[in-house]
Amino acid sequence: MDIRTNSVSSLPASFMVASIATALLFISIPLLTKISTIQPEKEKATHVVISSYKPPPPPEPEQEQRLEEIRKQATPEKLPPKHPMPQPRLNIANNGLTPGTIGTIPINNLLKQDIKVNDSIYAAAYDSNEVDQQPSPLRTFQPKYPFEAQQKGIEGTILVRFVVDSAGMPREPEIYRVEPKEVEGVFEEAALACIMKFKFRPAMKGGKPVDCVVRIPFTFSVTE
Question: Are the CB atoms for 139 and 198 separated by under 8 Å?
């Protein structure tokens, strides 16, 4: 009798507890659902994608060798310094000329020419001691040193005689003397070709330009 009475009296309390638990469950379901939807959004907002850079693989040995050959071809080779070749000396001292404006200009590719001497021009020209003012050089050149003579170290002096006409141009050059005699036929052509490039201020006599005979030595030396 006592046990049955206690069971019946406890039913309303259990029913009330179950109702409250059910109500709480229904209330918590929407809250849990909302929390579950907010959490992925936060994770999505903080998601960062980092792309990694992979360097290219090193070139193969054959490809690297080809690149090295291309670089060598693109780089110009350094040429050895050129040493200046000795030039013959032009000595116009003690030759009857009054020094003027003299320039030393190397000449190349001289034209070979046959020069014939006309004795009449020398006969009509004045000597350097017969004029009031002697010819003076305005433009001079160095003769071209013959290659074979330079290689063999052959040296010599060529004295050239010619006429400076009233216009200041050299006329009818000829070889007057060769020193030493052993070098005859070596430097004559270079000296004659060079003198035809000269330009002079003509000799003056009585206030007028006249033809005048002139002598100029050319010294060929490999040491200067």
Answer: yes
Q: What angle separates helix 2-9 from helix 11-45, to the nearest 10 degrees?
A: 40
Q: Which CATH number fits domain 89-220: 3.30.2420.10, 3.40.50.300, 3.10.620.30, 3.40.50.1580?
A: 3.30.2420.10
pLDDT along the chain (224 residues), means of 10: 49 67 68 57 50 61 71 60 56 45 33 48 94 96 95 96 97 96 95 97 97 96 84
Element (H, E) at 68: helix 61-74
Task: Round to whole Å and give the CA distance between 160 and 174.
Answer: 6
User: Coil, helix or strand for 209?
Assistant: strand
The three state secondary structure string of 156-189 is EEEEEEEEECCCCCEEEEEEEEEECHHHCCCCHH
What does the alpha-carbon distance between residue 163 and residue 172 come to, in Å, rounded to a whole number? 6
Alpha-carbon distance of 179 to 192, in angstroms, equals 16
The whole model's pTM is what?
A: 0.52
Nearest one of 203, 188, 72, 192 to 141, comparing CA atoms: 192
* 164 Cβ contact partners less than 8 Å away, ≥ 6 residues apart: 135, 170, 171, 200, 202, 203, 211, 212, 214
Domain limits of the chain? 1-43, 89-220
Among residues 191, 144, 145, which one has the least CA distance to residue 170? 191
